[in-house]
């Protein structure tokens, strides 16, 4: 008799017989497959690896599992929705949950951001926001506004639009000239003046005036939008000085330029409010979301648009399609169910306030690592943090990767490494004891790394 195929639960809990077929994203594939780090289940603050070791999650998965893992309300919502309506076409048809979720997000967002366009990821949300910005100016008779302004060290996903306004060289250099016309503000990372600043750095608000320089160079009438992450996560937690974002808003308003916040990482409680726009008191014209939107359980992204911007599209014959754009899975029923359950979980457990409640202790413990070998900076805000290490000569990134690897293998702790920066963004359900363990293990592994 033929041997029965292994069950899905068995396949999901053991090392696959062959790792070669899967081309892994943003990963040194050959290095990984020689010594794989495989996670097989998760609950609360912990993953479990293929050897059933508990791994404390210091990164909320990939900046996304803000309520922790396998939360019952979210799990049940996905199961129930899959059994009820697994898919509904979003073009010229609909299902109830996207409308319900859009209303919930509008109520949660800063005033005037009352309209939601659903995507499947942060990358798609950014490219969608770029298209909205271009179309908006064209509708208003300013079709010459085609230029985008990004920022050095920014990450706005991996679509050709997001790459074109992103400022991470390794993400860009392989893919040719990208979209024409983009330009870049300087980043706000300044170790010389701001190293080891608790919370927001004191210096750097004046860097927002770079936008005036770019406007003088290109002329405001050619610029469609400025894209910024309120806090740049993927580049290693780069923070704005007080007044920086406010100044960008002022300059954009003076010149008719849209301001777009990429809140894929900062959204859903990471900084102590629902969104960083609220924490910093600056409302953009467009805001991109993903990650924590569904607590990482089902892929989903979104663009929030202001009333004024949305209203420009709602002109002309009512039977005409207003925006020729969308995705097969826009507003997918399973994603909407997960997102609504995630929002309920955040609200019931007051998780958006956790970054305020624990922020001071998080800051105190993180900065206790100052003085360890090779530590050149520590950055924090809300429940996000970074420890920057001195690169090894002729081997940038090697020291950071070794600390990351040691944390997983020896410390049973998941962190993120981006170059020689160890980035931290634990689930918002953590307690002080989890903070202590994250910092203690990270400190031990830094000491052990030459």
TrEMBL record:
Keywords: Aminotransferase, Pyridoxal phosphate, Transferase. GO terms for molecular function: adenosylmethionine-8-amino-7-oxononanoate transaminase activity; beta-alanine:pyruvate transaminase activity; pyridoxal phosphate binding. The keyword Phosphoprotein does not apply. Pfam families: Aminotran_3 (PF00202). Its EC number is 2.6.1.18. It is an enzyme of class 2 (transferase). GO terms for biological process: biotin biosynthetic process. InterPro entries: Aminotrans_3 (IPR005814), Aminotrans_3_PPA_site (IPR049704), PyrdxlP-dep_Trfase (IPR015424), PyrdxlP-dep_Trfase_major (IPR015421), PyrdxlP-dep_Trfase_small (IPR015422). Gene3D superfamilies: Aspartate Aminotransferase, domain 1 (3.90.1150.10), Type I PLP-dependent aspartate aminotransferase-like (Major domain) (3.40.640.10). Its cofactor is pyridoxal 5'-phosphate. Belongs to the class-III pyridoxal-phosphate-dependent aminotransferase family. PANTHER family: ADENOSYLMETHIONINE-8-AMINO-7-OXONONANOATE AMINOTRANSFERASE (PTHR42684), BETA-ALANINE--PYRUVATE AMINOTRANSFERASE (PTHR42684:SF1). This is Beta-alanine--pyruvate transaminase. It comes from Stenotrophomonas rhizophila. The lineage of its organism: Bacteria, Pseudomonadati, Pseudomonadota, Gammaproteobacteria, Lysobacterales.
